């Protein structure tokens, strides 16, 4: 797993894609920071983070679209199918590499709360909860992206499918409000957006943390199963 992780990190650092996506995220976040904090004289970062989650819907599927789809298109996925390393280790290694790039995005964005701390007094509980929720929802987005990258050899299709899945998972809470009743409660329970609300208010709920890690584990499991099925079908 460590070898796969190092190789994938190297692949990200050797291509311009990761740098472009990081730059796009910081640029858009900077605009949101100016509109929601600087111009509004708001010392809390959570409004910016919540809107930045929408930016991640576009950026993170682009980050993960190549991790498995590219190898399948080039035929190099045969190395995965015949490797002595377990498929689970390979998938987790690739996932962690994309997660590292996302962590770099978060680290660079920490310049915004530092600016707020210089000119105001942001609430630490809101700051910590906001960034924790942001990290968890982004980590979940990446797991979905790795999964969709395993179902097609086309990177574009992978990114589009991931975008659609994330859009549904993120905004299903609005559908829940419309349908109401038991079905509405179920929709709210699986909504990424509804689960993230508490973090933005500085409320750390263990159940929500478990939920995000469970969704991540489910999509990684699905990815492993798809690759294993391909291995057996090719003998």
What does this 3D model show about the protein?
The protein has 235 residues and is mainly alpha-helical. It has one domain (2-233). The protein contains 12 helices and no strands.
Give unreliable regions as ranges. none
The chain-level mean pLDDT equals: 86
Morphology = globular
**Helical/strand content category:** mainly alpha
Residues in helices, as a percent range: over 70%
Write down how many β-strands occur, each being a DSSP E stretch of 2 or more residues.
Answer: 0
The run of helices and strands is: HHHHHHHHHHHH
Radius of gyration: 19 Å
Output the number of helix runs: 12
In short:
This protein is mainly α and 235 residues long. It contains twelve helices and no strands.
Top keywords for this entry?
235 residues, mainly alpha, 12 helices, globular
Task: Explain the layout of strands and helices.
Elements: H1 2-14, H2 16-38, H3 46-64, H4 69-74, H5 78-82, H6 87-109, H7 111-119, H8 124-149, H9 155-179, H10 181-190, H11 192-200, H12 206-233
Helix pairs in contact: 1-6, 2-3, 2-6, 3-8, 3-9, 6-8, 6-12, 8-9, 8-11, 8-12, 9-10
């Amino acid at each position: 797993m460590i070898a796969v992780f190092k190789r994938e990190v190297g692949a990200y650092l050797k291509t311009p894609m990761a740098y472009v996506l990081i730059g796009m995220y910081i640029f858009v976040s900077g605009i949101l920071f100016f509109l929601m904090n600087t111009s509004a004289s708001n010392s809390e970062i959570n409004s910016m983070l919540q809107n930045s989650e929408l930016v991640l819907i576009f950026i993170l599927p682009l980050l993960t679209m190549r991790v498995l789809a590219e190898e399948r298109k080039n035929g190099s996925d045969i190395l995965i199918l015949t490797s002595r390393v377990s498929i689970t280790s390979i998938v987790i290694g690739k996932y962690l590499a994309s997660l590292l790039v996302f962590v770099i995005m978060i680290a660079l964005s920490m310049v915004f709360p530092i600016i707020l701390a210089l000119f105001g007094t942001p609430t630490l509980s809101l700051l910590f909860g906001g960034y924790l929720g942001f990290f968890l929802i982004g980590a979940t987005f990446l797991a979905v992206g790795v999964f969709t990258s395993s179902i097609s050899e086309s990177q574009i299709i992978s990114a589009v499918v991931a975008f659609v899945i994330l859009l549904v998972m993120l905004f299903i809470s609005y559908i829940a409000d419309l349908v109401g009743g038991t079905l509405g409660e179920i929709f709210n329970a699986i909504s990424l957006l509804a689960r993230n609300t508490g973090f933005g208010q500085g409320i750390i709920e263990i159940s929500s943390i478990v939920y995000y890690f469970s969704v991540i584990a489910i999509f990684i499991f699905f990815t492993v199963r798809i690759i294993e099925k391909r291995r057996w079908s090719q003998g």
